[in-house]
Amino acid sequence: DQRNHGARLIDPRANKGWSSNPAEHNPRHALDQYAIFDGTAHDVFHLMNYLPAFLFPNDERKITEYGYSGISLGGHSTWLAVANDPRLTIGIPIIGCPDYMGLMSARARGNGVPVEPPYFPDSFVKSVTSRCPMSKGYDKKEESNPFYGKKIFVASGAADPLVPWDRSKEFVEKLEVGEHGRKAVFVQEKTGHTCTHE
């Protein structure tokens, strides 16, 4: 489970969004969501640091490739992790967005929430933008691009109201993976914020 989800639930309000209903409104929506999936990315980094030693204590084998896949918050986390760790060579973000600030700014405006403190503290915005896939030279045909040489499969719903495809489309179209990388995209028509069998 992600932080504050499933068996790890601590604060139900932290999983809620902005709402005109005071009982459902979470003023920290942008921060809470990011902290949850950023924490998951760090969990994966931690696993990659120690998993080889636990699986192969006598160095019987060497893990040479890691992949990351997630749905919704897990999709956001996939984008973040693959952009920030070269060990991750396969990424499968499902209904996730590589542009968190763009996604949340649009969501805030749609809910009448200003894109400013206390909803978007400067310290938070700086932290997000410094590690965001959008800031990583994702469209460059060179090794400095953290996606260069990686295999990326993107799956989204064309009618997703929560994580609209148009928030990811330009990034994904410009995403450069190079000659040895692979990029595939599946945007399912008439599909909202759900992971289907297709």
TrEMBL record:
<feature type="compositionally biased region" description="Basic and acidic residues">
    <location>
        <begin position="1"/>
        <end position="14"/>
    </location>
</feature>
<dbReference type="InterPro" id="IPR029058">
    <property type="entry name" value="AB_hydrolase_fold"/>
</dbReference>
<protein>
    <recommendedName>
        <fullName>Peptidase S9 prolyl oligopeptidase catalytic domain-containing protein</fullName>
    </recommendedName>
</protein>
<feature type="region of interest" description="Disordered">
    <location>
        <begin position="1"/>
        <end position="24"/>
    </location>
</feature>
